[in-house]
Amino acid sequence: MADPSNPIKFGVIGCAKIARKLIRAITLSPNTTLTAIGSRSLSKAQNFLSENRTRIDDPSKVKVYGSYEGVVEDEGVEAVYLPVPTRLHVKWAVAAAERGKHVLVEKPVGVEVGDVEVMVEACRVNGVQFMDGTMWLHHPRTGALRGLLHDQHLFGDLRLIHSSSTFRDADEEFFKDNIRVKADLDPLGSLGDAGWYCIGAILWANNYKLPTSVTALPKVIRNDEGVILDCGASFHWEGEDNKIATFHCSFLCHESMDLTMSGSKGTITLKDFIIPYQEHSASFDFSSDVKFVDLHIGWTSTPKRVEVSTELPQEALMVQEFGRLVHNIKVLGSSPDEKWPGISIKTQLLLDAVKKSIDAGFKTITV
């Protein structure tokens, strides 16, 4: 176990809104601490620190830099968190890894899978941990779901997966100024930002076995810069698996974070799989061996609600796990855990396949 008296020292590169959540998570995690913040200007970094003082244990001990280089070159920083635009991920992840710093990077990890491979290789060569910021994977509810998925008696064999991640920002300025709709910053739009979760959930449910083929659904909405605002796709596993998955992601639809997994004997449904409705408790609905009653006037039973509690929010659990891995490398001489970069590469690979199918006029892409 990591030593809480000697926490892993984090530096944050970039002051995006999501960084507010992660500096709180770094503070809540018992084995990490915030030690540096860097932005493109010193005043922006100072303002960010001032605005988030209540989310930090001791703001007086946090250094601020008017450049990203300042954090990367700070010898006191052991790990960096990168909430910068996607096009900047490769530059700063590689720079951090080459200076021996562990890398926690926001999603989508890259513009294409080659980007992710470059970052992962830089971390591998320099013996540092790589992980992307997919928080829901670290919630204890996710572990409970995994156990049920493997229950042949109650769930059976997985047959169908469907996921959605959508939201509509009430502020129309989002569609003008937000980096997620700018081709020069985050060219993947909703596919990268929201679709990452859907694709990741589909892979997770299928134990990260890649599908045989990917086909984008024939409805895509783009903005004037060509950035995707709304899209979907289907995945197919041939052979013995013979299963299907579908997803929809959008910046134009009302909030949804749905995940449904149907097996030969049961069905699991979540309506909040990315961000739980409540911070310290999450649930899912499960039904098994359900049939219609006589005359089809009802069901033989209603889904069972399963509640899973957690002392720490999922983002803090993610940071805690990252800190544990860093501690093991630093103190115990362990090798970086290859599980997390492997997940990032596979997720990005399928994201690329969806984009390729869209660009090819919705043709089926062999994975």
TrEMBL record:
Residues 8-131 form the Gfo/Idh/MocA-like oxidoreductase N-terminal domain. One of its GO terms (molecular function) is nucleotide binding. SUPFAM superfamilies: Glyceraldehyde-3-phosphate dehydrogenase-like, C-terminal domain, NAD(P)-binding Rossmann-fold domains. Signal peptide: none annotated. Pfam families: GFO_IDH_MocA (PF01408), GFO_IDH_MocA_C3 (PF22725). Residues 151-268 form the GFO/IDH/MocA-like oxidoreductase domain. Belongs to the Gfo/Idh/MocA family. This is Gfo/Idh/MocA-like oxidoreductase N-terminal domain-containing protein. It comes from Stephania japonica.
